């Protein structure tokens, strides 16, 4: 690519600034800008597009839940069902898990085995604890006759929280395969890119959980 | 915005052009020297403290009389958005 026709060549890499300068700055073009964005940037960009589409999925479920919050059909409402200490415990598990996931990313970048495997194991344990608590919560609700079939409110609740729980469960499986891939293939560039995608996925799930515990559980029990 | 980025005085384009092994950047996926580990970890710990703080405030005001009751949902929304910002900056490194 030449500096004369640079409009999209460096877009993702943020090479636009160099492009504005035009030919005068051609000599200052970096390796990355001369050959287009690096594969790591392209992969992360593509994965961000997936994550945003996933967030749109959650937004749709959120909107459904918001519309149906009061449609309890004479059954129990969130105020009677939600148990905040449980939600607090789930929140702590997922927040710590996302931090350990960050540590694992640092370990992989520094090729530090103890930091990588230890942090991944902690991420898995905390994530699995989160799923276990959530399953227990679901089982308790269903046992009490407040299953997804009881009311439109509970259908929307189980769909929204269950969808997030399924994402976390899928993330746990992905986490195990990433540990196995690093064990079998080492810290190769392509493995590092997959790890980057996994970390983005895991952090995004915690962001979705922030919305869930705030707007479903806490608003659900707040006095009005 | 303040993150765990190195304060080495390089401009962003200089940081991008840094060759692998020169450790001029701690963006996810880049190479990292073992000596950079404590600083990178510190960034996540700052995020953890901020997120935990915002979470505690959310759980507290949901059941207290600290906030005017009809405004509690809005206060919780604001706290949630603030915490999402903390996650995006300290965990997802959107700035780097």
Question: Helical region count of chain B?
Answer: 3
Number of helices of chain A: 8
Identify the overall geometry of chain B.
elongated
Percent in strands of chain A: under 5%
Q: What integer value in Å does the Rg of chain A equal? A: 22 Å
Largest interface: A-B, 47 and 41 residues
Integer average pLDDT of chain B: 76
Shape of chain A: elongated
Q: What radius of gyration of chain B results from the CA coordinates?
A: 18 Å
Q: Which assembly state applies to the chains in this document?
A: heterodimer
For the biggest sheet of chain A, the summary is:
none
Sheet with most strands of chain B? none
Number of strands of chain A: 0
How far apart the termini of chain A lie comes to 61 Å
Q: Roughly how much helix do the residues of chain A carry, as a percent range?
A: over 70%
- Uncertain runs of chain A are 1-26
Average pLDDT of chain A, to the nearest integer? 87
Order of helices and strands of chain A: HHHHHHHH
- Quickly give the structural class of chain B: mainly alpha
The residue ranges of chain B in which pLDDT falls below 50 over 5 or more consecutive positions are: 1-26
Helix content of chain B: 40-55%
Task: Describe this structure as you would to a colleague.
The complex is a heterodimer of chains A (224) and B (96). By secondary structure, chain A is mainly alpha-helical. Chain A has helices spanning 16-21, 31-34, 39-68, 78-81, 84-109, 113-143, 152-185, 189-221. In chain A, helix 3 runs antiparallel to helix 7 and helix 6 packs antiparallel against helix 7. Chain A is elongated. Chain B is mainly alpha-helical and 96 residues long. Chain B has helices at residues 12-17, 37-62, 72-91. In chain B, helix 2 packs antiparallel against helix 3. Chain B is elongated, with a radius of gyration of 18 Å. The chains are: A mainly alpha (224), B mainly alpha (96). The A-B interface holds A 13-14, 17-18, 28, 30-32, 40, 44, 84, 88, 91, 95-96, 98-99, 102-103, 105-107, 109-110, 112, 115, 192-193, 195-196, 199-200, 203-204, 206-207, 210-211, 213-215, 218-219, 221-224 and B 12-13, 16-17, 26, 28-34, 36-37, 40-41, 44-45, 47-48, 51-52, 55, 58-59, 62-63, 69-70, 72-73, 76-77, 79-80, 83-84, 87-88, 91-92.
